[in-house]
Design brief:
Elements (H helix, E strand, L loop, with lengths): L5 H4 L2 H8 L3 H14 L10 H30 L3 E5 L3 E2 L4 H8 L2 H10 L4 H7 L4 E2 L3 H15 L4 E6 L7 E5 L2 E5 L12 E2 L5 E5 L2 E6 L5 E6 L2 E13 L6 E10 L6 H5 L3 H13 L15 H24 L7 H4 E6 L6 H12 L4 H11 E4 L10 E3 H7 L1 H21 L4 H7 L2 E2 L5 E3 H8 L3 E3 L2 H11 L1 H6 L4 E3 L6 H7 L2 H11 L20 H26 L8 E6 L8 H17 L8 E6 L7 H17 L9 E6 L4 H7 L5 E4 L11 H7 L3 E4 L5 H8 L5 E2 L4 H10 L3 H7 L1 H11 L12 H9 L5 H20 L1 H13 L6 H13 L10 H6 L1
Parallel strand pairs: 1-4, 1-13, 4-12, 13-14, 14-18, 18-19, 20-21, 20-23, 21-22, 23-24, 24-25
Antiparallel strand pairs: 2-3, 5-6, 7-11, 8-11, 9-10, 11-12, 15-17, 16-17
This protein binds ligand GL2.
Ligand GL2 binds next to helix 8.
């Protein structure tokens, strides 16, 4: 950056143009950007022009902090967390930046004085949907917390041209539409072509002896891809720290193969460019499952190699010797998607930087830490050796060598236990050979953590048991958290204001302070304000549903919401069985007294996941019947809100009365939606799964609706031999529900449509819906009864919010810093960079 003399920095001109926060200054800057960046004037400007002008106005204010932060980190060579993640589900940036800069109200006023509505402009932002669900959103919450806690950090990932698909619903079925989030440009990022990095793929290796007589390996690749970083500043809440999200775009090293071009083969010349760019084209839309596709492995090595090489560039740039890589960087692997980092860092240190094996291994292990996010066997990544070796021949050799040393260690610790060697090997040799990425991550990291207490326990007892016995000291738990900035302050301003009017606003940074709300739980005025806020937010959602779905919803009904990815283990269909149970009761007795409910669903299914898509169809079909049956008399409504996203989630969480967290125990690693709902005053109906266990512990069991089998009970039942048909035959209401679906009642008489789903329940029921059915229905009946006592419900809601302090991502990040990263905060003073230069 060019040095600016001090007298000019203090000069009002600079303040006003780029950094000033007054309403007048914001207005001027906004019009300036409209003119100079968008090339428009108000009469012909589109809404998007206005959004862009505002985004640039806000970005200018971030840049001042971002550059200050970078200067200080560089000068001090600060220890830095690299968070490697194939997904970052950031959500819209504008609103969050306004909150974190503390200028939401000024900007609202500024645009309103220009005749515009801030909410309208916020709506305009295309969200970067670069993630599937919880795992990607967690990464985003963690970046927010790291900036807020002033922890130097870099988020590294892929800048997918197409993020998670847009979901439309046609005739009740999910239809996928490509997500063109970049079509109007992205005002938040800055491309850094000068820091491009080259990544090799394919080809073969050759052994040679170097000038010092050492055995070395040379990798002759088939293809080289160029990675171009695109940086987005991420500002902490009311701090000057702005960290960086660095996402890589794949390009061909040269735009044209000139040899092919000159020989007239134009298309052949462009071919390489197209093949290369494919790498960062699209996000794989599978949540919690892996399909072993070549392009996916290529994406993983691409972003991991770019990121590690970038870190090495930074290490050299800050005059840190490479032997101290692990002192400068700690690299957190967000699931196994970046686990190839173990082999890639070894390769970089040994082949490219001349280091010996032992030292390289020590640096690798000290640098890397691995977070596991799943207990589902289908999500544990493994790559067929043939595919792996073809794409990454050198990495395969390195993995074989790591495996050799590792199995020697296992033999030494557990002599004469060949079965253990087979189980723990980095290579699965039971049939076709595979590389096991979770094993690679465990062996190459100094820390292995789960994301909720129960999840970590189950990893230790089951999925990673051998590794726990081998390295007990590596294992630790870090219960997930969510950022209160986006998920209360931004998304629920009414609740935020009420809370702050009573206890001040410290809770935004210290979420445990919410406990001071408990003092008001018996204050009738406060309770009535609490209730009217929920009611007003529900009214907003009613209007939205009316507009989007054309369904009229009763705002006084229980807003019973299940919003998350569609997956059989999450059991949206158990929720559907409850709806039909109530419907059957009404059909049998139209005058029955039931508490009115609105069942709201949101979420996408992986495009190739047939059963999940059939569950979406079932819910929509139930809605079509129930919503239009005169017997129901508006006591039940079923609403499917299409295209669930972060933007949308922010609208939905605040409106919920009841949060559905009903996965089969032992399957949901943590869940984070459960936290966002409870933080907004919803009560939870849930199983003892994932973080539900800890949420219940915190809010008190009397304020949580628990039901169903526990994880050990699930295992025991399965071990005994589970027979869903027995439940079907012995439970009258359950049988009536299944029969109602089978009869074609929800499918215009078509008895085949839902047969695959019914058969899967009647003859397998892998996720034990039938076993949990009665407990669920009983619990829901209890919910309906409690809801009628409005004072009691309000009290429970307040206590839920007051006791959610543990689930701030600030707490999670604080724990990572202490137990895994060994890193301290680096406060940023504004202006220091300029003074430091003088
Ligand atoms: C997940 C888990 O399924 C979910 O329970 C957890 O809260 C998040 C974040 O830790 O990670 N694992 C996974 O693969 N996805 C998740 O959401 N997609």
């Amino acid at each position: 950056m060019q040095t600016v003399p001090n007298h000019q920095v203090d000069n009002l001109q600079i303040e006003d143009d780029r950094t000033g926060l007054s309403v007048e200054c914001l207005k001027r800057a906004f019009l300036d950007n409209l003119f100079y960046v968008q090339g428009k004037f108000p009469k012909i400007a589109t809404k998007n022009d206005y959004y862009m002008a505002l985004a640039y106005t806000v970005r200018d204010r971030l840049l001042q902090r971002w550059i200050n932060t970078a200067v200080i980190y560089t000068d001090r060579a600060s220890r830095t967390v690299s968070y490697l993640s194939a997904e970052f589900l950031m959500g819209p940036h504008l609103g969050n930046n306004l909150v974190n800069l503390g200028i939401y109200d000024q900007v609202k006023q500024a645009v309103s004085e220009l005749g515009l509505d801030l909410e309208d402009l916020l709506e305009q932002e295309e969200e970067p949907g670069l993630g599937n669900g919880g795992l990607g959103r967690l990464a985003a919450c963690y970046l927010d917390s790291m900036a807020t806690l002033e922890i130097p950090s870099l988020g590294y990932g892929i800048r997918y041209e197409f993020g998670i698909f847009d979901q439309d619903i046609r005739d009740g079925w999910q239809v996928e539409i490509t997500d063109k989030w970049l079509h109007c440009g992205n005002p938040w990022e800055i491309a850094r072509p000068e820091w491009a990095i080259y990544v090799r793929l394919g080809g073969h290796t050759e052994a040679y002896t170097d000038e010092r007589g050492r055995y070395r390996v040379r990798w002759i690749p088939f293809q080289v891809i160029k990675g171009v970083p695109h940086d987005t500043p991420l500002l902490g809440y009311k701090t000057n720290t702005a960290n960086t999200l660095r996402l890589w775009t794949a390009e061909a090293p040269e735009s044209f193969d000139f040899a092919a071009f000159n020989s007239g083969d134009y298309l052949g010349a462009v071919q390489e460019k197209m093949v290369s760019e494919n790498l960062s084209k699209v996000l794989y839309p599978n949540d919690d499952s892996s399909q072993g596709k070549r392009l996916r492995l290529a994406q993983q090595i691409f972003f991991v190699s770019c990121s590690l090489q970038d870190m090495i560039r930074i290490v050299f740039g800050q005059n840190v010797p490479l032997e101290k890589f692990h002192e400068k960087f700690v690299v957190q692997l967000n699931d196994t998607h970046p686990a190839i980092a173990v082999a890639e860092l070894m390769r970089l240190l040994i082949d490219e930087h001349d280091m010996g094996w032992d030292q390289a291994w020590s640096i690798t292990q000290k640098s890397l830490a691995y977070t596991n996010h799943t207990l589902l066997p289908e999500a544990l990544e493994r790559w067929p050796i043939s595919l792996f070796g073809e794409l990454l021949p050198r990495h395969l050799e390195i993995i074989y060598e790591i495996n050799y040393h590792f199995l020697e260690e296992v033999k030494a610790k557990f002599p004469a236990d060949s079965d253990r060697l087979r189980r723990m090997s980095l290579i699965d040799e039971s049939g076709e050979k595979y590389v096991r990425m979770a094993h690679l991550a465990c062996v190459g990291s100094h820390s292995i953590n789960g994301v909720a207490a129960l999840h970590t326990k189950l990893l230790q007892q089951d999925v990673l048991r051998d590794f726990y016995q081998m390295y007990p000291e590596k294992f630790n738990n870090k219960t997930n958290g969510v950022t209160p900035r986006r998920f209360i302050v931004l998304s629920n301003p009414r609740l935020t204001n009420l809370i702050s009017s009573k206890i001040g606003d410290n809770w935004v940074k210290n979420l445990k302070d919410l406990k001071h709300l408990e003092a008001f739980v018996d204050d009738p005025e406060f309770c009535s304000q609490w209730r009217s806020i929920k009611s007003a937010i529900k009214q907003d959602l009613v209007a939205y549903i009316q507009k989007q779905n054309g369904i009229t919803v009763n705002p006084d009904s229980i807003f019973d919401i299940q919003a998350k990815r569609f997956h059989e283990y999450k059991r949206q269909h158990l929720n559907a069985l409850h709806i039909i149970t109530l419907y059957n009761r009404i059909k049998a007795n139209p005058d029955i007294d039931i508490t009115p409910r609105t069942f709201i669903f949101g979420g996408k299914a992986a495009p190739g996941y047939y059963m999940a898509k059939l569950i979406i169809k079932l819910i929509n079909s139930i809605g079509d019947v129930v919503n239009n049956d005169p017997d129901v008399r508006d006591r039940l409504k079923v609403v499917f809100l299409k295209n669930y996203s972060v933007k949308f989630a922010q609208r939905v969480y605040p409106a919920a009365d009841l949060s559905e967290q009903i996965s089969m125990a032992g399957k949901e690693a943590s869940g984070t939606g459960n936290m966002k709902f409870a933080l907004n005053g919803a009560l939870t109906i849930g199983t003892l799964d994932g973080a539900n266990v800890e949420i219940r512990e915190e809010v008190g069991e009397e304020n949580f609706f628990i039901f169903g089998l526990t994880a050990p009970e699930v295992y025991a039942l399965k071990a005994r031999g589970y027979r869903p048909l027995d439940y079907y035959h012995s439970n009258r209401e359950l049988k009536a529900v299944i029969d109602r679906i089978a009869s074609g009642h929800f499918s215009h008489g078509d008895t085949k449509l839902f047969k695959p789903l019914l058969d899967s329940l009647l003859y397998r029921d892998e996720y034990l819906l039938f076993a949990d059915y009665q407990a669920y229905i009983d619990c829901q009946d209890y919910v309906s009864q409690v809801y009628r006592d409005r004072d009691r419900w309000t009290r429970m809601s307040i206590l839920n919010v007051a006791r959610m302090g543990k689930f701030s991502s600030d707490r999670s990040i604080h724990d990572y810093c202490q137990d895994i990263w060994n890193i301290q905060s680096v406060p940023i003073e504004l202006g220091e960079c300029i003074q430091a230069k003088e």
